[in-house]
Amino acid sequence: MRRALPALVLSIAALIPVWRYTPSTGASAQAPPSPAEALSPDAPPSDSSASSAPPNSPSESSAPPSSPSGTQVIAGSTVPTAKGAVQVEVTLTAGRITSVRALKAPRHPQTTAALPQLIESTLDAQSADIDAVTGATITSDGYKESLQAALDRKSGT
Fold this sequence. Notes:
about 40% helix, alpha+beta, single chain, about 15% strand
């Protein structure tokens, strides 16, 4: 009996932090921008909750109208891959690809390293006909498919 009381008190004292614990809601914490966002300086910051629209939403089903300056911003389709969903947004000025931004990308080291290379290749080639990045083939294929969908929307096909 002499040992039971201290054991009980210490057990309760150990549980107090667990009872007082309040999990964070994640509302104030923001992820750092992806390398793809860092490469397109004119792109607005991405909000992960805003990119959760259904893949067949009306905004993705047709090409957006051109602005008076001839600039179009077109989101490609969301492509599910084994590593996670991939979606890109293409900015076209006077028919040329001027920037590409990843709206959705897997949080994976190979993907993080591959996106800047894929974007650079896209800007050089001015099309979705680019080579996959070694070590990130799955992400590269999803990127190219989403990019091609965006370019198809531009031409209205």
